[in-house]
Design brief:
Layout: H1 2-6, E1 11-16, H2 26-36, E2 42-45, H3 56-66, E3 72-77, H4 83-95, E4 100-104, H5 120-130, E5 135-140, H6 151-163, E6 166-171, H7 177-189, E7 196-200, H8 206-216, H9 222-229, H10 236-252, E8 257-261, H11 266-280
Parallel strand pairs: 1-2, 1-8, 2-3, 3-4, 4-5, 5-6, 6-7, 7-8
The protein binds flavin-adenine dinucleotide (FAD).
Flavin-adenine dinucleotide binds near residues 47, 49, 145 and 170.
Length: about 280
């Protein structure tokens, strides 16, 4: 995976999430089956907010590998995590042949607690030292993390993540490519050299728009706001077209690593990927 991210070929990956309840894997298995048809370079599997993921991430990772032959990036979060729990998680991932981990602090809820790890970088450093066989990814934020004092400060912590063993990054979703280009310039000036995948989410409903914007504080450029306003009754096609245009622009500007937040909708992944199939073969 890391080699594909570092070479000059297009690397298209997809995020999926496990079901809320233990078991109940049918929905995500259906999604993986559909997503598998467009051959993503890897799928990432999220972990529940505030460390409440249980074994579901590992279960989904296992299906993706064994049933669909996919490469998998499993998300691991620091919140509520102890060294003991991490040890058993690592054992599971070794057994299931997962070799790539996305190391995060995790989304917080009011009851969230920190035990052995406070920041993603602390967790990355510990894993790198104790379980060096894993390749570690991290998150980054083109518009700055919402809790960060400033984008510059956030980029300093991103640099620190690299020092702690993170070898590749995936960005928070964004709708304005110019924010992403400015971010990349700043990050490279700080000598952060790891590959960075641009996180793109096709917005396919009005409710999704307001939820995402309030959750991530993502800037809505005028073209995006206009697209949403002009398609009040049905955003599906327009939202996918917007994401395709965004990705096309990214590729034309030399960005070749794209991570699609598909919300477990295989149809969305298929419609986006088919537009770039010819470029993947180059
Ligand atoms: P960190 O890198 O630890 O940063 C958190 C905050 O602390 C930032 O404001 C940063 O500037 C600051 N900071 C960092 N290091 C230090 C330090 N040493 N001292 C002081 N301040 C510091 N959440 C989930 O719960 N499950 C998931 O599966 C999941 N997947 C995600 C995937 C991607 C690609 C992204 C972008 C986010 C994902 N999230 C997920 C959300 C993520 O957990 C939240 O955005 C969380 O608030 C921050 O995580 P982080 O790893 O970026 O944190």
């Amino acid at each position: 995976m890391i080699d594909k991210l570092k070479n000059d070929q297009l690397c298209l990956s997809v995020e999926v999430f496990p079901p809320k309840k233990e078991g109940h894997l049918e929905g995500v298995i259906r999604a993986l089956k559909g997503i598998g048809e467009v051959n993503p370079d890897f799928v990432s599997v999220t972990y529940g907010a505030s460390g409440a993921g249980g074994d579901k991430t590992a279960d989904v990772a296992s299906v993706a590998i064994d049933a669909f032959g996919m490469k998998v990036l499993a998300h691991v979060t620091a919140v509520n995590l102890t060294k003991q729990k991490l040890e058993s998680m690592v054992e599971t991932y070794r057994r299931k042949n997962v070799k790539n981990l996305l190391i995060l602090r995790g989304d917080l809820v009011p009851e969230s607690k920190f035990f052995d790890f406070r920041y993603a970088s602390e967790l990355a450093l510990y894993i790198k030292k104790n379980y060096p066989e894993f390749t570690l990814f991290g998150a980054c934020y083109p518009e700055g993390h919402p809790e960060a004092e400033s984008l510059e400060k956030d980029i300093e912590f991103m640099r620190h993540k690299e020092d702690c063993g993170i070898e590749a990054f995936i960005t928070q979703l964004f709708f304005d490519n110019s924010c992403f280009y400015d971010f990349i310039d700043k990050v490279r000036q700080k000598n952060i050299t790891s590959p960075i995948s641009a996180g793109i989410m096709p917005i396919t409903s009005q409710s999704q728009t307001s939820r995402i914007v309030s959750m991530c504080g993502t800037h809505m450029p005028p073209t995006f706001a206009k697209m949403v306003a002009n398609n009040v009754d049905n955003l599906y096609d327009a939202g996918i077209d917007y994401a395709v245009t965004q990705i096309d622009d990214l590729i034309n500007n030399g960005q070749k690593n794209i991570h699609l937040y598909s919300m477990n909708k295989a149809d969305i992944a298929k419609r986006v990927f088919e537009k770039f199939e010819h470029k993947r073969k180059l």
